[in-house]
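Morning F.,

Quick status update on the modeling queue. The single chain you submitted on Monday has been processed. Sequence for confirmation:
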Amino acid sequence: MTDPNDRQVGGDHYRTGYQPWDYFEDWGIGYLECNVIKYVARWRKKDGVKDIQKGIHYTDKLIERAEQLGRCAKANVPDHAFQVFVDGLSLNHIEKMIVRRISKWSSIADLKHVRDQLVVLTQEHHRETAAMADEHFNGGDDGC
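Structure tokens below.
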């Protein structure tokens, strides 16, 4: 049997040195947290803002579980493991912060901060998209 890390079905958005599923399994990261990380890691390469919205949805569920059931984080990923993981991804500062906090959250405030940062990502994306559209629209202006 071939190594499952040697192939990916449906694209190459997870092609990194430290595969997300290995990161999740190695550190016992919970299902809901895994999905937030997955969507943050792939949103620029796969489904765009829709993936960020999915990350927000999973974060909302985590908040609900923490508030209603006292759910606690299932993992506490060491800094070195986090760094190895994110070094293989092309994440910006906000995305790295989201992955770090969701990997190590310890309070509802942490989860709410993750949610807020996911919203910031959508806003930044909309600003970037608008700026690119303006540039494209105005780029053909010959002054007439």
